[in-house]
């Protein structure tokens, strides 16, 4: 009986998006998945799920499962169950909203309570196109990442399509499949394929 070829196994990685309401979690996912941006804000109700395939070097393929969580307080009780088996926690704030940045600490604590150190924490400062309204400096965010043992901080703009693909490339670099590839790999060699799957919002309300 032959042993299955491990290189053909499609590994799945769960990425949960956290942060206050209206910081741009859904917009980040939508821009990455469909390369679109909607000016009309609509709050996420409960939990949304989408997935996308990424092709790495050495014929490696991974599946990113993107879980978009609601930022409203009334849904907070649902979120720990989605954090529990996640591989990456992308915690977002709005660079023009200091309160959303100050609340990062409680989101980080939620993640560590459920996953300890067995999770990659990424901090994202969204809405960088509104730099003239900035309330949070890059230095403040970098200090938070160091204190929280986060992997990296990146500023994005879903409206201007700035650094969104780079965010996901950097996430891919942190995953075991990327690290097991050749040492010569660089972010530019990660090719993204639009191979999408979605599920309806959680019927929790």
UniProtKB/TrEMBL annotation:
Q: Where is the composition biased (Polar residues)?
A: 188-205
Q: Which SMART domains match?
A: RAB, RAN, RAS, RHO
Checking Pfam families in the record gives:
Ras
Predominant subcellular localization, coarse grouping: membrane
Q: What GO biological process terms are annotated to this protein in UniProt? A: cellular response to heat; cellular response to nitrogen starvation; cytoplasm to vacuole targeting by the Cvt pathway; Golgi to endosome transport; protein localization to phagophore assembly site; protein-containing complex localization; retrograde transport, endosome to Golgi; retrograde transport, vesicle recycling within Golgi
Task: Extract the NCBIfam families matched here.
Answer: small_GTP
Q: What is this protein called?
A: Ras-domain-containing protein
Organism from which the protein derives: Hyphopichia burtonii NRRL Y-1933
């Amino acid at each position: 009986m032959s042993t299955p070829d491990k290189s053909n196994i499609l590994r799945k990685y769960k990425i949960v998006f956290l942060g206050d309401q209206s910081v741009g979690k859904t917009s980040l996912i939508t821009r990455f998945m469909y390369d679109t941006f909607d000016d009309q804000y609509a709050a996420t109700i409960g939990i949304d799920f989408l997935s996308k395939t990424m092709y790495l070097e050495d014929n490696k393929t991974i599946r990113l499962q993107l879980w978009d969580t609601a930022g409203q307080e009334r849904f907070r009780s649902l979120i720990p169950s989605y954090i529990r088996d996640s591989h990456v926690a992308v915690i977002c704030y709005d660079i023009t909203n200091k309160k959303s940045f100050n609340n990062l600490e409680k989101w980080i604590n939620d993640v560590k309570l459920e996953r300890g150190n067995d999770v990659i924490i990424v901090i994202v400062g969204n809405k960088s196109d509104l730099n003239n309204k900035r309330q949070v400096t890059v230095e403040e965010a970098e200090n938070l990442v160091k204190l929280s043992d986060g992997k990296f901080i990146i500023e994005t703009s879903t409206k201007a399509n700035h650094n969104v693909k780079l965010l996901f490339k950097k996430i891919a670099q942190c995953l075991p499949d990327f690290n097991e590839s050749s040492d010569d790999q660089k972010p530019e060699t990660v090719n993204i394929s639009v191979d999408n799957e979605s599920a309806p919002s959680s019927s929790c309300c």
